[in-house]
Structures are given as structure tokens and as C-alpha cells.
């Protein structure tokens, strides 16, 4: 998305200076920058609340995003300690990303040294099998050295739960490579069941420090080969390494002290950003109708179409909305209703009967609109209703004269109904007279409606 890749990246430069704890003035300025792009992405009216558009699109407030970037930069590059309420990590306890080439491209590990063909059949010589395991609380990494049919050495470690499977596998591969360099000079094959870690080790431009160190080690030790193997296909030696990794993750030993990955640092501050965003969304005074439909914010967009946004926000071609901003002389609907809202057009207006949905009771409106949001048929009706309102703007544009005629018609209709009420239900009159009276009243009503509609249109 252009917004994510370009617009949000521009104000990130220098964010650590002013956005570690931005004042209210800066927050408002950043919201002002964000509003035009949110409106362009949704097609909503410019008067729609910013927080509503952010919740619909899954885009956090700009000041929170810059604050997250500033916190990461403060620890990784500026060596600034943050309060313990944010993170217990201090500068220097996280991995530093690598830049540039770790070696000349001509010196990179060759295809013979890095094999991506299933190496399950390799049994000759010294083989080192690596594996990892992740449980609910901790992560385990291990490798075992096979010489012939026996395990001559094994290494296993317990890691914190914030380590990913890839990082644990990469650590096991790095320790296996270091162990292989300490053995007598002979062909050694390290067998791994994770292709991503093998590719990272072969990439001289990897930003991962562990992968970069491993690449340099492989360049200087050409007798060490790395081969990929299929996981969980009953290779006994690989299953043995997997068992060691599980034992390490479930053991009572202390976790290995290694630097926290960059992803963990970012996840901490992203979680804090989501908490602050949720708190702001709950404390907002506006957009409460959308809040009842979307009570939880998320970075996943809702994929609402423009018509749906105009309907649920109430900011659209409705008299009640136009009157609020002095774009119409009255908030009444041309049909005579005193409240020309989106709900009125969707449930009660006689001019939009073809697009009506069942009108819910007032206490059930919230449940109803949540169901409308999840029902495809209701969504199609909303789209057609908005298209109808847009195509027939003159029909729904009320003026003082048409408002007077419409009101007069309703009063006249009520008075005639009261006058003819005894005739309709008279038991003394013949049935023929009663039927004739009702028929004449029907034509009289129809003639009045036609005349009134002519004046309105």
C-alpha cells in the first residue's frame, strides 16, 4: 500500500527527537496530516471522525506509530534507557542488525557446500543434526554429533519464549558450526530441517548477526557442509535431535543468556501501541455508534465499502447530516418524517421502500446493525440504497414549499380518515353503500397523493 510504504515513512525521520512522549499539540498536528489520506482511502466525508476511519482501516494514529518507531530507535541506536513500564531491556541487550556484505560475492559458500536436496540418506563420516522445539513457556535448541552409529557429543539450551523457531534453529546451527570448527580437520556435514536458516547462513547480505557470523565461518572452513533434510519423516537421527530440543525446552535449567532479537523489541512496543490505541478509542466522545460495532481496534482492516461507511457513520446524503453542517434548510425527509437519517431511509421512508430492511426495536438496534454488518444480503441493500440516494438527489432534496405541502397532506389525510371512519364501520348502512363509500375514499386518497407528489417533485 502506497500509504504504508511512502506516507508513513516520511515523518519517521527524526521521530526519536519529538515523539518519545509527544505533547497534545504534536498529536493533533500529526492527526491533521493523517486525515486527508484516511478520507481518500475510504471515500468517506471529510467530517467523519478521524478515530472512526482509523478503526475501519486498521491504521493506528500516526503519533502512536511514530512513538513506537522512536522507542525502538532509542534503545537500538541512541542507547537511551526507557522506563520499566515499557520494557525491562536496556541498551546493549538486543541484537544489532548488520549492514552491507559480510564477504565478497565470489567468496560466498558454494552450492556444493550448501545443499537443499534432502540429505536424509547421509550416514557416512561425521554428521551433526540440529533441531528446535517451542512450547507454551520456553523454546529449546539442540544439536547432536553422530560418528558412525553413536552420539559422541550433544548440546542443548533453553531459551526465552520470545525466541522464534527460526531464531532457535539459527542459534543451534551457529553452535554446531562453532563445534565443527573445533574438531579435527575432516569432512563434516551439518544437517538441518529448516530451509530458512540454511538460506540465511548462505546469504552474505543477511541483517541477522548470527547468520552473518556463520557465513564468515563457512567461508574460512570449506570442509564444513550444510545439508537440508525433510522434517518429521521418521529419520531416526533427526528425531533424536528433536527429542533433545524438547527436553531442553521443558527442563528446569536456566534460560541461556543471549541477546534479544529485534522482533521481540518491536513486538513489545507494538503491543503497547495497541493498548494505547484501544484506550484512546474507548475514551473518545465521538464515533460511539461505530464503537458499538467495532469495539476492539486492530491492524487488520474491515474492508468496508464506501456505501457501508456512509451508512453506518451517518455522514452522507441524509437531511439530518446536511442540516448539521448548514447544507440543508431542514432535517426533515421529503416523505414528511422529521428525522431524515440513514436508519429512516433503510427502514421507514416511503421513497425507498424497495430497499427496506426490518426496523428493529430501539433496544435491539445494536444487535441489528452488527448482524447487518455480517450479512451479505443486507450489505447489498445498503449499497443499492446509497446508489439510489445518489442517483435521485433531486427527489430527496427538500425545499420549504414541498415541506409545507407534505405536512398539509398528512394532516388532510388524518382528518379525512376521522371523518369517514363512521361511514366505513356503519352497521345501519347497507353493505353496498359501505363498499361504495370505501371505493370513493380510495380514489379520493389516490387523487390527493398524485397531486401532492406532483407538487413535491
From TrEMBL:
Molecular function, one GO term: RNA-DNA hybrid ribonuclease activity
Protein name (database record): RNase H type-1 domain-containing protein
Organism, as annotated: Araneus ventricosus
Record-annotated RNase H type-1 domain positions: 122-250
InterPro entries the UniProt entry points to: RNaseH-like_sf (IPR012337), RNaseH_domain (IPR002156), RNaseH_sf (IPR036397)
One Pfam family recorded for the sequence: RNase_H
Amino acid at each position: 500500500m502506497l500509504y504504508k510504504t511512502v506516507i508513513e515513512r516520511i515523518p519517521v525521520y527524526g521521530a526519536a527527537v519529538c515523539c518519545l512522549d509527544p505533547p497534545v499539540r504534536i498529536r493533533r498536528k500529526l492527526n491533521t496530516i493523517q486525515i486527508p489520506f484516511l478520507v481518500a482511502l475510504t471515500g468517506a466525508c471529510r467530517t467523519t471522525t478521524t478515530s472512526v476511519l482509523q478503526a475501519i482501516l486498521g491504521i493506528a494514529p500516526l503519533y502512536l506509530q511514530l512513538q513506537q518507531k522512536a522507542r525502538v530507535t532509542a534503545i537500538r541506536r541512541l542507547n537511551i534507557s526507557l522506563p520499566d513500564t515499557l520494557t525491562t531491556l536496556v541498551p546493549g541487550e538486543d541484537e544489532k542488525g548488520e549492514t552491507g556484505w559480510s564477504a565478497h560475492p565470489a567468496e560466498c559458500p558454494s552450492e556444493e557446500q550448501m545443499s537443499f536436496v534432502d540429505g536424509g540418506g547421509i550416514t557416512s563420516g561425521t554428521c551433526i543434526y540440529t533441531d528446535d522445539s517451542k512450547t507454551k513457556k520456553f523454546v529449546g535448541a539442540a544439536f547432536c554429533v553422530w560418528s558412525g552409529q553413536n552420539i559422541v557429543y550433544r548440546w542443548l539450551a533453553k531459551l526465552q519464549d520470545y525466541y522464534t523457531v527460526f531464531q532457535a534453529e539459527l542459534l543451534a546451527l551457529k553452535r554446531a558450526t562453532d563445534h565443527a570448527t573445533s574438531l579435527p580437520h575432516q569432512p563434516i556435514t551439518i544437517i538441518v530441517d529448516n530451509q530458512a536458516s540454511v538460506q540465511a547462513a548462505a546469504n552474505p547480505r543477511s541483517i541477522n548477526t548470527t547468520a552473518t557470523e556463520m557465513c564468515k565461518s563457512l567461508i574460512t572452513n570449506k570442509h564444513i557442509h550444510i545439508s537440508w533434510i525433510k522434517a518429521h519423516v521418521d529419520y531416526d537421527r533427526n528425531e533424536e535431535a528433536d527429542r533433545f530440543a524438547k527436553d531442553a525446552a521443558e527442563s528446569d535449567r536456566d534460560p541461556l543468556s543471549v541477546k534479544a532479537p529485534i522482533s521481540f523489541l518491536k513486538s513489545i512496543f507494538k503491543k503497547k501501541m495497541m493498548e494505547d490505541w484501544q484506550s484512546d478509542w474507548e475514551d473518545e466522545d465521538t464515533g460511539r455508534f461505530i464503537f458499538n460495532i467495532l469495539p476492539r481496534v486492530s491492524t487488520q482492516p474491515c474492508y468496508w465499502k464506501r456505501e457501508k461507511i456512509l451508512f453506518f457513520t451517518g455522514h452522507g446524503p441524509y437531511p439530518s447530516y446536511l442540516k448539521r453542517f448548514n447544507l440543508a434548510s431542514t432535517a426533515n425527509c421529503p416523505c414528511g418524517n422529521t428525522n431524515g437519517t440513514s436508519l429512516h431511509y433503510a427502514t421507514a421512508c416511503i421513497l425507498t421502500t424497495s430497499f427496506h430492511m426490518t426496523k428493529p426495536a430501539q433496544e435491539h438496534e445494536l444487535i441489528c446493525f452488527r448482524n447487518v454488518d455480517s450479512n451479505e444480503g443486507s450489505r447489498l441493500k445498503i449499497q443499492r440504497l446509497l446508489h439510489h440516494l445518489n442517483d435521485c438527489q433531486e427527489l430527496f432534496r427538500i425545499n420549504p414549499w414541498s415541506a409545507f405541502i407534505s405536512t398539509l397532506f398528512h394532516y388532510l389525510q388524518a382528518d379525512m380518515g376521522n371523518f369517514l371512519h363512521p361511514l366505513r364501520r356503519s352497521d345501519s348502512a347497507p353493505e353496498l353503500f359501505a363498499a361504495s363509500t370505501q371505493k370513493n375514499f380510495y380514489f379520493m386518497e389516490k387523487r390527493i397523493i398524485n397531486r401532492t407528489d406532483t407538487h413535491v417533485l
